[in-house]
Amino acid sequence: MSGPRVNSFFLGNSSGVNFSIILSSVDEETGKLPLANCSGSKRAGDWNLNVTPGMNASKVTISLTRNLQLCLPNATDCCTTPLCVVEMLQVLACRDSVMLARLLIQAEIYVNSSFTGNVSENATIIPNQVFHPLGSCPCDLTAGACDVRCCCDLECTPDLKQLFNESCFNGVFGGDVNPPFDQLCSSESMEYIPDWFPFLCVQSSLNNTPFLGYFYHGSISTPRVPSFKIPLQTSPGRLFTGYRQGDPIMTEENEYFTIPQQSMAGQCVGNAPVAYLHNFDVKCLTNLASYKEGLPHDVRVNSGTGDFIQQNVIYRAITDMGKFITESESLHTAEVLCQNVTFAEDYTFIWKDKNIEQINVTVFLGNLCDGEILAQRFTVKFQSLKSTNATVLFGNPGYQVGKPVKAANMNASDTFGSLNIWQTAGRGLCTLATSTPVLFGLDSFSGCVLEVGIDEDCSLLRGNVTEKLNSLIQATHVGKRDNSSYSDVNDWVEIIRLDPFNSDTNVSSGNLKGICPDIPANLNIRIIFADVGALQGIPQQEILAVQISYSTVIWQFQCGLICENSTSFLPITASVQFIKVPAQPPIPMTRFQINYTEFDCNRNDVCWPQLFYPLTRFYTGEPYSQCLAKGLLLAFLVLLAAIMSNPWFSKLW
């Protein structure tokens, strides 16, 4: 044993068993231990024996009672040498003077390195760490005792150092207070020494080392923890100067005003901030188990001037739950758990300049039962205070990216039109799909699945698919600008329609059951726009033309080994593509550029106008410093060649 306490166990019934401890020593002549008898006691010298009886085993504890501190001057009851105790013990278990078990213990215990003596009141003079190392042995932390693993500690004898000689502290803490630094000429610590190192190395004594002051703290500055608040809210007492387009709307508690929105991955994020002047209409799928309430409607919102406005909330009950319940896993019974939850929230922000004047919220409530999937709908719409028509949301005449494209039906008494794409949910069937407006500047692709029977008539199928696709385009014209007036025909461009190929005359050819050619299953919407100017530094974008075309496919009934199913599926899609064209046609080429193609970099391998291109910042093939050095070297060689080719230079030789 190497510590002042050791435990062992006596297995079996300990009733009537007498435990004793005796000190033993090896006979120098025979080298054997003397015979032990059962006449001992539970105390021998500085050792105590304690027995804790148990049911089938007894715990035997042997402990040392003496002090293990190293002797200080004029001290008693201590250890005079680091190896304090070297003794041999025998623990005996006897019953009726008959030895049942014997335990042999060899104890070699060193002094305790923890200091428990009196601390001197004399103040220790600590040198200035800027000019002198903080002691020659920083790991010497205990006065009058050996610190384990501190090989520079003077209190550690050679015998003690052998115990931890291979695991000493290294570096400055281990006593190497003046290690050679990398800039020293005699240092070989660097793995790769550059060629210019002998010219710039430092020849200095180790007494003048950059490691001086390694433990010097100096003045302590309070760290500045970055705040997650926006700068307009972190400064107390500062007036709110209003919102700009895209700024997050803040609440009274200097937090973001959040409404569930869709992320880039298509999933719904419950704590997404609402951006100023950014409309959106999203649907989030949830069930009763994962349903969570959003931000409370009693939260006051910062208007933009430092004032706070309250939300005007109206609660309504859902009448048609089929628009929100997309799937039901089981039939409802009386024991099914139901809860009154929010089905939809409609926010209308009335704004003026950089401030919010009013917030109107309409909350639609309904019962959601266990096993149903709810498509929650959240809409945010910003309406100008100066606007008399709710459809005119912004004073910006041009389109903004992400805003709905304005459409009109000039052939109807109600000129209001729509330009939509599909927004499917659940199984993706066209009968359950809803529509969403086409957003300016955002290319999109959507579709749904149409159920078709094996005995479907091809002509009726073409008409049904065409009707489904045409239901997305309830317009004849598209507004050039976002503020196009319905009364001014010049503010609108007519939609160019390319009708699908009519193949009714060729249906009879082949008479194949379950196969229909020329099905217009793909609707292609191409919108051409351009930048026509700028208003207060914001580019104004205008729609120039809109074209609608159809792509046909060959539909074939899909079945396995045998066609047991009477219905198959036909996917129909709608795609939107925005094409930007220059506002002005490019400058035509001159006759010189047409005839003399030697200087045209696009039609020749050698481009003389770009001779000095590697010396410009636009060249990224190699570092700019290398390009500049090579360019200067090339210029020097050219200058040297010019000088040497001069006639007067040859006369010097």
UniProtKB/TrEMBL annotation:
Residues 241-383, 398-581 form the Tectonic-1-3 domain. GO terms for biological process: cilium assembly; protein localization to ciliary transition zone; smoothened signaling pathway. Coiled coil: none annotated. Pfam families: DUF1619_N, TCTN_DUF1619. GO terms for cellular component: MKS complex. The keyword Methyltransferase does not apply. It comes from the Eukaryota. InterPro entries: TCTN1-3 (IPR040354), TCTN1-3_dom (IPR011677), TCTN1-3_N (IPR057724). Residues 112-221 form the Tectonic-1-3 N-terminal domain. Keywords: Cilium biogenesis/degradation, Glycoprotein, Signal. Part of the tectonic-like complex (also named B9 complex). Belongs to the tectonic family. This is TECT2 protein. It comes from Alca torda (Razorbill). The lineage of its organism: Eukaryota, Metazoa, Chordata, Craniata, Vertebrata.
